[in-house]
């Protein structure tokens, strides 16, 4: 895990670096031919094991690289001459660190036109793991022929030189890479090489030099420098360096005690571990570039590299890292983040549970796992993990917040309120009040039926964030629900609408408060706009139906209520809708097909994360 920020131009990769030809696209099922009998169909010069091939396709789309690798290798057995199957089996095997990856790389390497950066790196890494460093150098040089791969190859070659007893040459080469934006990282690896080679004084000077050049906090650099300081009698300064690192990130703060306990140990002690860290760096840079591209609006089918391709390349680099060092927690945390971003929950969970429990970052992995369980509708699995963390590292706001979120998912409002209260108290003690915690507790109070407490928390949150539309809408709409001070409620909702007039929930709230005050002409257009924006929100449809009923458009009102009833409303909303239909004297008749898959509403939003996020069409997250 690297904590720094680079300029977006540092590592801009072309589409040909890693994703072409091996990763340019997910394999398509159309290539599997229909056949009458058996599981293999003739396709051109060979046969396709269609069952295995289709399993591979499904596994890729589910993010299960292990299953994909096994399936494509089985399909390849039926047609060893199929170049596409060979590439897919090879790349997926690399991603999971399968031993077959080396054998497949040798097959790929036999045909010059099929050779790639990937095959060269696999064979170079295999040679490095066997300790045949001159052979590794040959393959890494070949990978360096790619103009983009040249950014990482100096690190790989330097570690090969160190392993062969040429540390001085390796250090000089890294410190004189021409025109590279990666100089802070090259300097860091030069320091690591000096330390591994026993050149302790030189390592210390290079750690300081790397720190001055680094554009932010870097985990590897900080831990390495702290270990150097500790082992040179500067214990107080070493501990201060670690404290400064963990203070930059609330999640990393949980690992503070474990990092302090391991402060004397260098995170890199061999060339093999150094190579693994080089691959983690590459994955990090790919992720950074993907984020920069997305922020600049460059993502999409027309971009040079879309987010999927960036993530595939990053996952590949992390596969290289974990093949060199399977215990590397930094790599596993980053890989799980990518898998979670791609909605591969099972794969992300499996990645996180493999973080060694003795690693200083194990608690970070446990928190990530608990949050993953909560946001994927498994809060019952998250709660014991979080409670265990709270016992191990008490006084952590992020743990109590996450517990509150998990309890909220299980609708244990009393426990959620207690967890949020502990988080709020901790924030106050640390003199860092957080309006989002007040809002989360306010929502829990509201769900528990204590509107007075919910209102107090929301007003307290507004004192810190007076222009937050989320808070203004929640308070204003809650007041409308309670039929209290509708004039103030409208004032709050008008302000929220002025701040965000594209939010359907706010538009609906403003329309509803006007209807409740008798302003049907002013309220109905707002409700109609909200219904257009979120046609599958039962609450919005109920409001629009009620407004139509009050203005005399009774047939349209009944239609809206029946639509709302067919959208699986909450129990409270369902009671209101059924009461409205009973008032109209008609039986509830949801639209035709309301229970069919085609008529189902979109899935509910994921549970509230650390920062509350308002889903369009919902008055509360």
Automatic annotation (TrEMBL):
TPR repeats lie at residues 49-82, 538-571. The keyword Signal applies. Residues 1-24 form the signal peptide. InterPro entries: TPR-like_helical_dom_sf, TPR_rpt, Ycf3. Gene3D superfamilies: Tetratricopeptide repeat domain. Residues 582-621 are annotated as: Disordered. Keywords: Repeat, Signal, TPR repeat. Pfam families: TPR_16 (PF13432), TPR_19 (PF14559), TPR_8 (PF13181). Residues 592-603 have a biased composition (Low complexity). SMART domains: TPR (SM00028). The keyword Signal applies. This is Tetratricopeptide repeat-like domain-containing protein.
